[in-house]
Amino acid sequence: MRWPAPLAISAAVAVALATCVKPHAPAPVRAGREPDIRVGLVLTGSRATVSGEGETAGVVGGNVSFRLTPGQQVTLRPEGMAVVVEEGQGPVRFENLTFVSLTPDRFVTVNGKAYRGIVEAYQRNGGLYLVNRLPVDAYLQGVVSAEMGRRAPNEAAALAAQAIVSRTYALSNRGRFGTLGYDVGGGISDQAYGGVGSETPQGNEAVRRTRGALLTYRGQPIKVFFHSTCGFATAAPEEAFRTVGSEPYLRSVSDRRERGGYYCDISPRFRWQVEWDAATLTGILRRAAPAQLGIDSAQIDQIRDIRVARTGPSGRVTEVRVSVGGGEIPVYGPDLRVVFRTPAGDPLGSTAFQLRTGSSAAGSLTITAAGAGWGHGVGMCQWGAVGRAREGQSAEAIVTTYFPGAVLERWY
Which of 112, 346, 391, 400 would you call most buried, defined as having the most Cβ atoms within 10 angstroms of its Cβ? Predict the structure, then answer.
């Protein structure tokens, strides 16, 4: 590690450094100005590595404390923000650090992945946090293709639709985890975000073409959701979530084409099937019972029957009843995919399924779930968006179909 004399830096970098003293609450979004977004890359971690593709500054309180040469790596740990440059050297401790690339078109890397913008590192409640702060559209460049993959030229409208929906998600969630210093996570629980390595020319063009465009209702960014494949129709939020209330723009939307079939029938997960024997499903339910169902696993002694008890507005299953020796156990919509895991241990593809029971050659009970679609089903169907783009629908038509009543506006 080199501890430099005062470093001459560009005006643009100086402005960035001046705001890097500590994690801060975001300013309200206003039309005409692109805001920043803070993306949690490492949350409550115990160790992380940071380096730079070019020369990188470690900043404390707006001042450059050290510089890293291209490729030089530091190891961060939460104990007083200990920085270890090389194995065998004693750590230097900081309360917080900000990493800024000083080389144009070169990026800070975290655990081997490159990210635009700056990276803020700090400790909270004994855990290490690394947060990527950057303009919203720069963030979207690492989201759109991570979510949608590479697409053909006639599918560009689907990428643009994803950019609009992802921008809406980002802006509607700014400040959600403000007390912890970030807005959204970098994993699929929010949006898939792979940084620079996930960017593609097609995805970046979709972000550029839709710059500042988002969906609003009564002047505010809407709550948006998206998923892989709806199977036939999108879900109402109450079919999938406990904590998401009904909204005029969040309701079941048919994905049927006028000429027959469904827009998302091009998905490799359009239809699926899972089979269990009674002993396998009993074991799966016993493992899930305490955490997901709040009951003692001993209550699930032997599965005698299983049936769909209720469905929701889209036709998805909202309640299953499992008959065991002591009676019936209800399993409700938000728990279904986690409780009824596949024999391989994966969550069920969706809650759009039909159940069939039968008997094996040995006479034991067998259960088959024949399903449609993939994911929670609420909001935009990503494969449906691709199918609609292939049919010539615009990005605006796609997003306003999946979020009926929402308005497409350009905020910056």
Answer: 400
